[in-house]
Design goal:
Layout (H helix, E strand, L loop, with lengths): L22 E2 L1 E6 L5 E6 L2 E5 L4 E6 L9 H9 L1 E5 L6 H6 L10 H5 L3 E2 L8 E2 L4 E13 L7 E13 L12 H4 L2 E3 L5 E3 L18
Antiparallel strand pairs: 1-11, 2-3, 2-6, 4-5, 5-10, 6-9, 7-8, 9-10, 11-12
The structure holds flavin mononucleotide (FMN).
């Protein structure tokens, strides 16, 4: 089959989000100007670059047509934290995606514990094994009709936290132990449980690890 997105796909379920899979989850914590802590998952999340370490996530508009709380908080305060979503934390991740009013503390809603950050007053999810403290760089506002307008938020990673227990003696992260959670299309998820290594062919002239 083939289709033009604005004309419709003819399938029972929209296949688009099942194409770029699995998508890592940006489990983003923020604090509002009024001091309310917020937590929400975004599967449109990625590294923009490794050097300097730069990340992004993209949010559609909230049910009331305005910016989502995460975006508003980041633009107001200049800070956000990425918390690593894992298989063990899957229910908390799911709960934190509920649309709730800005005054609700979503750490409590998700049932997770707060641990302070170093660079800002945005709390981190204590149960997550890794965190990125991010300084807000800019929002790229993509045009769209109504809730389909997209805010692409870009941030620079200024501090990285990794639980020592997920670092292998050889110095790599133990990904099968962490079991990172990823989003597929529909309400489907994936979990990374196995890793294979494939070295570049010789002669290799790229970056060293
Ligand atoms: C696993 C998962 C992934 C999600 N990914 C996105 C996304 O990429 N973009 C988006 O706008 N909303 C996404 N959502 C919905 C938001 O999490 C939801 O709108 C949330 O209420 C936003 O919170 P906020 O208003 O506190 O920022 C996702 C929800 C779940 C459960």
């Amino acid at each position: 089959m083939q289709y033009i997105p604005q004309d419709g796909h003819g399938l029972r379920y929209d296949p688009f989000k099942s194409l770029t899979v699995p998508r890592p989850i940006g489990w983003i914590s923020t604090r509002s100007r009024d001091g309310v802590d917020n937590l929400a998952p975004f599967s449109h999340w990625q590294n923009v670059s490794g050097r300097p370490p730069t990340v992004m996530f993209a949010a559609t508009q909230a049910l009331d047509g305005g910016r989502k709380d995460s975006v508003r908080n980041i633009e107001d305060t200049g800070w956000f934290v990425w918390n690593m979503a894992t298989w063990e934390l899957r229910e908390a991740v799911n709960r934190s995606g509920l649309p709730v009013p800005p005054g609700v503390d979503e750490f409590a809603l998700a049932g997770v514990t707060k641990v302070p950050s170093v660079e800002s007053d945005v709390p981190r999810v204590a149960e997550a094994p890794c965190h990125l403290e991010c300084r807000y760089l800019q929002t790229v506002r993509l045009p769209g009709t109504g809730r389909d307008a997209v805010d692409m938020v870009i941030g620079q990673v200024v501090r990285v936290h990794i639980d020592d227990q997920v670092i292998l003696p050889e110095g790599k992260l133990d990904i099968p132990l962490i079991k990172p959670l990823a989003r597929m299309g529909y309400y489907d998820y994936a979990v990374v449980e196995s890793v294979f290594e494939m070295k570049p062919p010789d002669p290799y002239v790229g970056d060293v690890l």
